[in-house]
């Protein structure tokens, strides 16, 4: 699985908004600067996030972006889906829409299991978790394993 730059930037900008003081709007320029993200690319990402109900924008002096819902109600999976679509797909299809036959038939179970595990992590972690510098215990257990940090 590969996390796109778009998804990475979207999550990082969303966490900045989650950490913003009392929901005060943050300009796209400030978000881009805080996370060292290309401003023009971030503008397009913020439009996607607004269209999907993750952020809302406020115009005028002191305007900018805010989260559209409380940070503890927005998961990383929500943000990734908003900008990239399904969390796991194979040849541009959802695993559950695939059909394999013969010796490859059981491969479908691997792709569905992969999706379930990706979802299990990304759906459990909220923007509030990240903004506070924590992750749920079950996710922390995964990263506590030294092998998780190794590239075989």
Draw up the topology in text.
Blueprint: H1 5-19, H2 28-35, H3 39-51, E1 55-58, E2 64-67, H4 76-84, H5 107-122, H6 127-131, H7 137-144
Antiparallel strand pairs: 1-2
State the gist of this model.
The chain has 152 residues and is mainly α.
Structure description:
This protein is mostly helical and 152 residues long. It has a single domain, classed as Orthogonal Bundle (Arc Repressor Mutant, subunit A), CATH 1.10.10.10. 49% of the residues lie in helices and 5% in strands. The chain is built from 7 helices and 2 strands; from the N terminus they run αααββαααα. The protein has helices spanning 5-19, 28-35, 39-51, 76-84, 107-122, 127-131, 137-144; strands at 55-58, 64-67. Strands 1-2 form a two-stranded antiparallel ribbon.
Distance between the termini: 15 Å
Mean of residue pLDDT?
A: 91
User: What is the CATH superfamily classification?
Assistant: Winged helix-like DNA-binding domain superfamily/Winged helix DNA-binding domain
Q: What's the helix count?
A: 7
Structural class: mainly alpha
Q: Indicate the low-confidence ranges by residue numbers.
A: none
The CATH architecture comes to Orthogonal Bundle
For the secondary structure, the number of strands is 2
The third-level CATH topology is Arc Repressor Mutant, subunit A
Shape: globular
- Based on CA atoms alone, the radius of gyration comes out at 17 Å
Strand content: 5-15%
- Amount of helix: 40-55%
InterPro entries: TR_Rrf2-type_CS (IPR030489), Tscrpt_reg_Rrf2 (IPR000944), WH-like_DNA-bd_sf (IPR036388), WH_DNA-bd_sf (IPR036390)
Keywords: DNA-binding
Protein name: BadM/Rrf2 family transcriptional regulator
Organism: Isoptericola halotolerans
